[in-house]
Design brief:
This protein is an alpha+beta fold. 28% of the residues lie in helices and 24% in strands. It has 1 helix and 2 strands; from the N terminus they run E-E-H. Strand 1 and strand 2 form a beta hairpin.
């Protein structure tokens, strides 16, 4: 399963991760990528 964190203004990929489908991989990777991004401003998920 491929996961990408994208910058909203230009649609650029900021972070990317690959994981095995476990049923909760999407949620776990989303939280990990947000933590790793180091952004303190507001983020939108989709």
């Amino acid at each position: 399963m491929d996961h990408a964190l994208m910058e909203n203004r230009n649609g650029l990929v900021v972070l990317e991760r690959v994981s095995q489908a476990t049923g909760i991989a999407e949620q776990e990777n989303a939280l990990a990528m947000i933590d790793r991004s180091g952004r303190s401003g507001s983020l939108k998920g989709g």
